[in-house]
């Protein structure tokens, strides 16, 4: 295999112990894989006897050195202490990541913990870039981070190779949609895009991004990977239109102020009332959890925007920018639709790789977990099952996701699952 992925996890509260345990677990998986590739069991007797085969050279029996490590943590750890501990556990290995509202290894979800994915290969090329502050100029930060990640890379992807860019922005401090636009300006649309916004378990205080052995905030990290094996993404959300298209006649960044020249909340209420649902200020957050906004795309898909609260004088504050002049619809969803979308995302990535899969990174919105509740394990199991039972899978619960719907351009999404599959 050209590329292999090994996953380790820890739920230990101490950052040094968590780093040591998760890296050790991933390295154990790597060592076990190396042993299994060079052991034939049971031995087949030969007659007449034949000369013994020469021993496997040590250089071939050793597993490939990790080329990169993706590190995803929950927000309880001291970010600087965790960065120092991970750097100590991964000497000489480039690594990057962020804190989120939850992490998972396979179907094991940790609301406090750390997961590490080691990408081992002698062939892949990896670059990591970081830029800040996203709160002042998100687009410029995206441009700089992507440029730094791709520094030294060929301007175009080599024939037969695949390029992926993972974008990890601080989703609390700036316009993450603008950050993604800046990164795409540099990386282009002809590559694989994935990622998600760093989060802090809905406390809305502070997030951490990791790069170059350090912890940052108000930043964006971009990871660039060139591989001779195919890489691909799948993306899905599972929401369907609930109300008619209406035009955004005034938006202020992430706030939808007016729809059809009327207060956005009033139009939202009227849409719900037409379907027999009553929505007031006190019940808005609960109703909006299953009834987000959708921005129609040319191919019939919708980019989801998650309205968190009503702001004076009747606007809707969303996780992510809503452009002036665009059409928007109220959407609806349920657990069955969400798990079906997870299946679609995983199968799309799997089928696009069209061969053995080394491992997969999943960026899954925290609000999907909130909607699924105890059945979130069904979604995590679905990722595993559709990608293949032997495929290592790890991921996190993000504040918004990065990916391209169909043949569209990469964008910042909400309430969406993005699956990045790395071919072996």
Please state the CA-atom Rg, rounded to the nearest Å.
22 Å
Coarse shape: globular
Please count the beta strands (DSSP E, at least 2 residues each). Answer: 27
Question: What kind of sheet is the major sheet?
Answer: 9 strands, antiparallel
- Structural class by SSE content: alpha+beta
Unreliable runs, pLDDT <50, ≥5 residues?
A: 38-61
* Number of alpha- plus pi-helical segments: 10
Q: What is the CA-CA span between the terminal residues?
A: 6 Å
Strand content: 25-35%
| Helix share bin | 25-40%
Features:
single chain; 424 residues; alpha+beta; 6-stranded mixed β-sheet; 10 helices; 28% helix
Written overview of the protein:
This protein is 28% helix and 34% strand. The protein has 424 residues and is of the alpha+beta class. The radius of gyration is 22 Å and the shape is globular. Strands 14, 15, 16, 17, 18, 19, 20, 21 and 22 form a nine-stranded antiparallel sheet that branches. The chain has a six-stranded mixed sheet with strand order 1-6-2-3-10-11. Strands 5-4-24-23-27-13 form a six-stranded mixed sheet.
Brief rundown of the structure:
By secondary structure, this protein is an alpha+beta fold. About 30% of the residues lie in helices and about 35% in strands.
